[in-house]
Write a structure and sequence with these properties.
Blueprint (H helix, E strand, L loop, with lengths): L1 H22 L6 H18 L8 H23 L3 H17 L5 H5 L4 H11 L15 H14 L14 H12 L6 H16 L4 H6 L2 H10 L7 H14 L3 H9 L2 H15 L2 H18 L2 H6 L6 H20 L3 E2 L2 E2 H11 L3 H10 L3 H14 L6 H22 L5 H6 L1 H12 L1 H4 L14 H11 L17 E5 L5 H11 L5 E2 L14 H11 E7 L2 H5 L1 H13 L3 E6 L9 H7 L5 E2 L5 H25 L19 H10 L4 H6 L7 H13 L1 H15 L7 H38 L1 E2 L5 E2 L2
Parallel strand pairs: 3-4, 3-5, 5-6, 6-7
Antiparallel strand pairs: 1-2, 8-9
Helix pairs in contact: 1-2, 1-3, 2-4, 3-4, 4-7, 6-7, 7-9, 8-9, 9-12, 11-12, 11-14, 12-15, 14-15, 15-17, 15-18, 17-18, 17-20, 18-21, 20-21, 20-23, 21-25, 23-25, 34-36
Protein name: TIR domain-containing protein
GO biological process, one term: signal transduction
Organism: Rotaria sordida
Length: about 750
């Protein structure tokens, strides 16, 4: 009963506050205006005795109505009278309810995205340039507006066109003038928080860079003398950390020597901040450092962190492990995705990776569990949750990809069946699943699909049908190289092609170095190549994708590798690359003229091609069996179709929805071709049917992806089997027509 009374009391206070706020106008007498403001201050204190977060409906009422009254407050503040003073008292009380709170929870309670968009666009024009002057009369007003704008924007697709002209420029000029002015510390921190949010938004990062916010932040970091208050220092470092996640800003930050600026700031920050606060800042700086550092530098360094560095690394790992178990994804204003991306950069150093896995023996299990949770998460969520979920998956698959290069962990991967199923879905459902909210991913980071494929290839786990008809492929060599060596590669391929068939990625139709599908083409080319010609370079050694190619060629396919060094190449293969090509006969194009080196390479290739071809011929026993195998798919009945649905992990609701639609394997094939061609239209139809069939229940995106992926793979597998069978029959007919019996009755094949 008391709970009902408390709720009723809060509801009445909320209604009274809203009515009084709406009643304010410029036509009121000074006395009546004063009376209303006094009531508003009292109502505000009564409605939020324990903070705004305990009365979210009241907070929503404030946000829904405050923008209407801002022009009145603007006018009152411009006059130096009693009403001006009272207005500032109310705005101060209101801004104090916002201070130190994460208003994001308040906006997450507003589930209507259209309503959120209206809120943002109602408030952003109200933030005028003339509020940011040496006169602090507007400070409390600004401290009410900035948090509302900052916390609503992550939930919306904000672009540069949504912001007023020179918005970031006048904020920067004001901050430069007052960044260590303690009397205006609150407004400075609110501005920095807004820039932090914008620095995380891919569409706004170019504007942040153009207005030279990165330059200013690094200059503040390098400032000599006493540091500003902790929160200000912390926010400046957070801005740099958010910017470091975007490729376009990494170049700018490195040009500004950001890493050295961070390193040089340690001593003064440690002196001016207490130990806990200083370690929080160092935590953020370590993430920034990892994201800015070149992958080649991380890979080459013998990383033996100092005591403090080890402590921060342990904090990162502990946070990730805790997140996998509790679902708490935020720590020190950082989301787990940011820590995962930093660790994925650091873990390309094999020494550090092994050290951390040995010291935290539950880490791999926790990473796998975290991937399962995020790959299963519904996409019927708000924009921010989708964005963070996608970022988390990107960090996870890239980190796990680095671990998968070490065979000692393969069994642990493979024994986790749920993990392997989720990983296979990520690797094969590229068209739908990886078209996420992410507009940019950190430098040296691969897409979800590409990294997931990489893990599965390292594990020698079959998850895709072969896309090449091996029996019909012409014998060829393949070139494996880093695109940094593309000029030499083009020249080499041009000359080699005059003598032998050559497969190289840039000659393939529709292929692109940025396409995830190219990996399937590369895999097919490796499988059918007689020899892999490897162009050795430092860039090849630094590339995770190149390491993936060579690992697949050597470990899985056991292919013959011929290393080639380009001209002017001073790098000598070491580390994992040195181990892979140790003892192989190589050709160095820098030690003789091009034609001589080419002749030497052709001689090696000719000998090896002949050896491989002879071996294949001696092992090629032609079967005289002429009966075709029956294609079992066309003979499927309902129970076979049900088994296929179950084997491909189709959601039970979708099985129910399609239970009466398919009775033969042929029907499945026809629908698979239809779905391939019209999947967008089919998606809309299935959504509608699902909603109707299950009484308003929404179909989860990942369930539809699994459904589509299964049908697409079914069609590809059938088409490939059909073409291979035709090729096999044709081959048998030709070879049988040339077969004769010798005097002993043995079959001789020509």
């Amino acid at each position: 009963m008391s709970g009902d009374l408390t709720y009723t009391h809060y509801q009445m206070a909320t209604n009274d506050f809203a009515n009084d706020l709406k009643s304010l106008s410029l036509s009121e007498t000074a006395n009546k205006y004063s009376n209303i403001i006094e009531r508003l201050i009292i109502q505000l204190k009564h409605a939020t005795p324990n903070g705004l977060m305990e009365n979210k409906p009241f907070g929503v009422v404030i946000i829904d109505n405050l923008y209407r009254i801002i022009p009145i407050f603007d006018k009152k503040l411009s006059d130096d009278n009693e009403n001006s003073h009272q207005t500032n008292l109310f705005l101060e009380a209101l801004s104090n309810t916002f201070h130190g709170l994460c208003l994001l929870e308040l906006f997450l309670a507003i589930k209507d995205s259209y309503r959120l968009e209206i809120i943002f666009h109602n408030y952003i024009p109200l933030l005028k340039e003339n509020y940011f002057t040496n006169d602090n009369r507007y400070d409390h007003l600004v401290n009410c507006l900035l948090p509302i704008i900052a916390y609503s924007s992550p939930l919306l697709p904000v672009n540069e066109a949504d912001l007023p002209p020179n918005f970031l420029s006048f904020l920067l000029e004001f901050t430069k003038s007052n960044w260590q002015n303690q009397q205006r510390n609150t407004i400075i921190n609110n501005i920095l928080h807004l820039i932090k949010v914008f620095s995380r938004t891919p569409t706004l990062v170019p504007m942040v860079i153009r207005t030279e916010w990165p330059n200013a932040c690094i200059q503040w970091i390098k400032e000599t003398g006493p540091r500003p208050l902790y929160e200000t220092d912390y926010l400046i470092n957070l801005i740099l950390s958010k910017l470091a996640r975007h490729t376009i800003s990494v170049e700018v930050l490195n040009q500004l020597d950001c890493i050295n600026a961070l390193t040089e700031s340690h001593e003064q920050m440690e002196k001016d901040h207490n130990e806990e606060d200083y370690l929080c800042i160092r935590f953020i700086q370590c993430i920034t450092h990892a994201l800015l550092e070149e992958a080649s530098t991380i890979k080459q360094k013998v990383i033996v962190p100092n005591k403090q560095g080890c402590h921060i690394l342990d904090q990162m790992i502990s946070f990730v492990m805790t997140a996998s178990q509790t679902g708490v994804y935020f720590y020190k204003c950082c989301h787990v995705a940011e820590v995962l991306c930093a660790l994925s950069k650091l873990f390309i150093n094999d020494e550090l990776l092994i050290k951390c896995l040995n010291e935290h023996n539950q880490l791999l299990d926790c990473l796998c569990q975290l991937l399962i949770k995020n790959a299963t998460m519904t996409h019927n969520t708000n924009r921010l949750d989708q964005f963070l979920n996608d970022e988390t998956l990107i960090g996870l698959v890239n980190l796990l990809w680095s671990i998968s290069f070490h065979e000692s962990y393969h069994e642990k991967f493979k024994s986790n069946i749920n993990f392997m199923n989720k990983l296979s879905n990520l690797a094969t459902s590229s068209l739908l699943y990886t078209t996420t909210q992410i507009k940019a991913i950190p430098r040296d980071t691969s897409s979800i699909k590409k990294a997931a494929e990489g893990i599965l290839w390292n594990l020698k786990f079959s998850y895709l049908p072969t896309t090449k008809e091996n029996s019909e492929q012409q014998s060829h060599i393949m070139i494996s190289y880093s695109h940094c060596n593309s000029i030499f590669c083009h020249e080499l391929v041009e000359h080699l092609s005059n003598h032998i068939p050559v497969w190289v990625d840039y000659k393939q139709e529709h292929s692109s170095i940025y396409s995830d599908d190219l990996w399937e083409e590369i895999a097919g080319a490796m499988e059918t190549a007689t020899i892999i010609v490897l162009i050795v370079s430092k860039e090849y050694y630094d590339s995770k994708s190149c390491r993936q190619e060579l690992s697949y060629a050597c470990d899985t396919l056991k292919k013959r590798i011929v290393p080639v060094y380009p001209p002017n190449q001073t790098y000598k293969a070491n580390g994992w690359l040195g181990i892979r090509i140790a003892g192989q006969k190589y050709v160095h194009f820098g030690r003789s003229i091009f034609t001589s080196a080419l002749h030497e390479l052709l001689s090696i290739l000719a000998v090896d091609q002949k050896s491989i071809t002879t071996q294949k011929s001696s092992n090629n026993i032609i079967s005289t069996k002429s009966d075709k195998q029956e294609n079992s798919l066309k003979n499927w009945v309902s129970k076979d179709i049900q088994k296929w649905f179950n084997d491909n992990h189709i959601h039970n609701d979708l099985i129910t929805l399609f239970a009466d639609e398919f009775h033969t394997g042929t029907a499945l094939l026809v629908y698979a071709r239809h779905l391939k061609q019209f999947y967008r239209e089919e998606y809309g139809q299935i959504l509608a049917n699902y909603y109707k069939k299950f009484n308003g229940k929404r179909l989860q995106t990942v369930d539809f992806i699994t459904f589509v992926d299964a049908f697409w793979r079914l069609r590809e597998e059938y088409d490939i089997q059909h073409r291979i069978q035709d090729a096999w029959d044709k081959c048998n007919k030709q070879q049988l027509s040339h077969a004769t019996n010798d005097s002993n009755g043995e079959t001789i094949c020509f």
